[in-house]
Specification:
76% helix; elongated; mainly alpha
């Protein structure tokens, strides 16, 4: 299989999943598809690991994560407080 970009890899992985789920796919073919999926998955992980954000993108991601953490904080406090009414 050609190198492909991340979108092409995920599209092919979706195709593999559909083929493996098909009752018409033999065990031998499913194993071949599994091997291909492992190779594609490794390539995708390598792409993600080597991806670098620009400083602007990194700042935007940090701000988004901080906003998410703040919005989740009250829910986490409610889970840790056994009885918020004090009773």
């Amino acid at each position: 299989m050609a190198e492909g970009n991340f979108d092409e890899i995920t599209e092919r992985l979706d195709e593999i999943i559909a083929q493996v789920r098909s009752k018409d796919t033999s065990l031998e073919r499913s194993l071949d598809l599994f091997d291909e999926a492992i190779e594609l998955g490794s390539r995708a992980v390598d792409m993600v690991d080597s991806f670098e954000l620009s400083p602007r993108e990194a700042d935007m991601l940090d701000a988004e994560l901080a906003t998410e953490a703040q919005s989740e904080q009250p829910a986490e406090q409610a889970e840790t407080d056994p009885d918020p009414s004090g009773a």
